[in-house]
């Protein structure tokens, strides 16, 4: 697999469009950190690291839906930096997603964080994806 992060985001995006309650994806430290950021920002209901039948680590993510309208908290996921074209930003040039309504997940020297937290800590890094 060339881009495991894009595969992870695509699994979540497809589960959102198909109105699934839970999505399962292969686990890695980077994917767990991206999932943690999504949980902290309120885009997903819960997550846990588990193993599948073959004994390989997986992440199980419970997607968040509005109780009455059944709309999902995640409207869109977009991969920004990819293996063929990496995208880096300084703290001053950090992107704003939907004028602050969405988040950009950024990989910095201080760990995976949102664009807002990266601006507060004055660190730049690789822009992994947009979530709105």
From TrEMBL:
Lineage top rank: taxon: Bacteria
SUPFAM superfamilies referenced in this protein's UniProt entry, alphabetically: Ribosomal protein S8 (SSF56047)
One CC-aspect GO term: ribosome
Xref: Pfam families: Ribosomal_S8
GO biological processes: translation
Coiled coil: none
Gene Ontology terms for molecular function: rRNA binding; structural constituent of ribosome
Membrane-spanning residues: none
Keywords: Ribonucleoprotein, Ribosomal protein, RNA-binding, rRNA-binding
Family indicated by similarity: Belongs to the universal ribosomal protein uS8 family.
Protein function: One of the primary rRNA binding proteins, it binds directly to 16S rRNA central domain where it helps coordinate assembly of the platform of the 30S subunit.
Subunit structure: Part of the 30S ribosomal subunit. Contacts proteins S5 and S12.
Protein name per Swiss-Prot or TrEMBL: Small ribosomal subunit protein uS8
Organism, scientific name: Alistipes indistinctus YIT 12060
Gene symbol of the encoding locus: rpsH
């Amino acid at each position: 697999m060339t881009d495991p992060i894009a595969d992870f985001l695509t699994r979540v995006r497809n589960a959102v469009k198909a109105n699934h309650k839970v999505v399962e994806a292969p686990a890695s430290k980077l994917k767990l950190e991206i999932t943690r950021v999504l949980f902290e920002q309120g885009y997903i209901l819960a997550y846990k690291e588990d193993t599948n039948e073959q004994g390989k680590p997986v992440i199980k993510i419970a997607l968040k839906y509005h109780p009455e309208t059944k709309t999902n908290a995640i409207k869109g996921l977009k991969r920004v930096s990819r293996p063929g074209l990496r995208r880096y930003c300084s703290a001053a040039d950090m992107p704003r997603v939907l004028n602050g309504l969405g988040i950009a997940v950024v990989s910095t020297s201080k760990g995976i964080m949102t664009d807002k937290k990266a601006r507060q800590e004055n660190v730049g890094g690789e822009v992994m994806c947009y979530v709105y």
